[in-house]
Amino acid sequence: MPRLALAPALLAFSFAALPCRAETAYGPELQGFDYPFPVERYEFTSQRQPLQMAYLDVKPDKPNGHTVVLLHGKNFCAATWEGQIRALTGAGYRVVAPDQIGFCKSSKPGAYQFSFRQLAENTHALLDKLGIAKPIVVGHSTGGMLAAHYALLYPKEVEQLVMVNPVGLEDWSAKGLPPISIARWYERELKTSAESIRNYEKATYYSGRWEARYEPWVEMLAGLNRGPGKEAVAWDSALLYDMIVTQPVVYRFPQIAVPTLLLIGQKDNTAIGKDLAPPEVRPTLGNYPELGKAAAKAIPGATLVEFPESGHAPQMSEPEAFNKALIDGIGR
């Protein structure tokens, strides 16, 4: 297995450390926000409409013959995987990181039946175009739910599955979250601001701590949500939240038939729509120390690695430990 060399610049997230201009507005496909690697486009037709999926395809100097596909979370983009891309390519892996339809630099269709199956099929079509037959699929947060669906849909075409603090480790509706209309999700999304993003991420992603290197990712999302396409962005976001809440994957964990690694920050308390749940229900949702163990037990042969001091995004809060655990885990 290739040894991981962690340069100081990598751990500092060189791209994320760049200063951001206050109140910058970005286009509906994140026009004006630069990624740390060249962005490529996959143009295809889905649900009777032309779409484009932005993606990064970063190749190592010394290939080891394996490809890692990185699937971002709801409030993340391909660019937020920068530290992992540098670590993985340094260890010999080719890395493909797409922006899913409805997110970041990809199309924002006004009428689209979002489902995890559809997003998995879109991703599979992209990988087929790139000639990638059996990747290691890594998904974080909502991307973890997507990665699980991908492994269920294409079990013979996945080398390994890695889920990083995935949402969907529990069925929130079954636990008491009331029905939330798309109109209500849309209304909430239109109110998104840098302050609301920062406060949520500090509490949930970074367990109450904040560092300057997280700020560019806040401005990335805030600029997208304050830009000229903010209504389209908010509408797709509402559709995606409905998808996440109404399409739980936890019941199918026993059917996952590929080697699986779970990387779980123990201070995570994520539960979509938790603030809309009855007060007596809220404390029961998003208990990741319990949820991670339950998922590892439900998925045949799964390996669980816990990060005691991390919240929802261990790959960003403690990248050195995370990158080592990831590369050690997929290299076994």
Tell me what you see in this structure.
The protein has a domain at 33-176 and 249-330: Rossmann fold (3-Layer(aba) Sandwich), CATH 3.40.50. It is α/β, with parallel strands linked by helices. Helix content is 36%, strand content 14%. The chain is built from twelve helices and eight strands. It is globular and about 45 Å long.
CATH topology value of one domain: Rossmann fold
What is the assigned CATH homologous superfamily of one domain? Alpha/Beta hydrolase fold, catalytic domain
- What's the gyration radius in Å? 18 Å
Main structural class: alpha/beta
Mean pLDDT, to the nearest integer, reads 93
Q: Share of helix among residues?
A: 25-40%
What's the end-to-end separation, in Å?
8 Å
Q: How do the strands line up in the largest sheet?
A: 1-2-4-3-5-6-7-8
The number of helical segments is 12
What is the overall silhouette? globular
Question: Strand tally, please?
Answer: 8
GO molecular function: hydrolase activity
Organism: Methylobacterium komagatae
InterPro entries: AB_hydrolase_1, AB_hydrolase_fold, AB_hydrolase_sf, Epox_hydrolase-like
Keywords: Hydrolase, Signal
Summarize this structure briefly.
It is built from 12 helices and 8 strands. It is of the alpha/beta class and 332 residues long. Helix 3 packs across helix 4 and helix 6 crosses helix 9.
Descriptive labels:
globular, single chain, 332 residues, Rossmann fold, eight-stranded mixed beta sheet, AB_hydrolase_1, alpha/beta, disordered N terminus
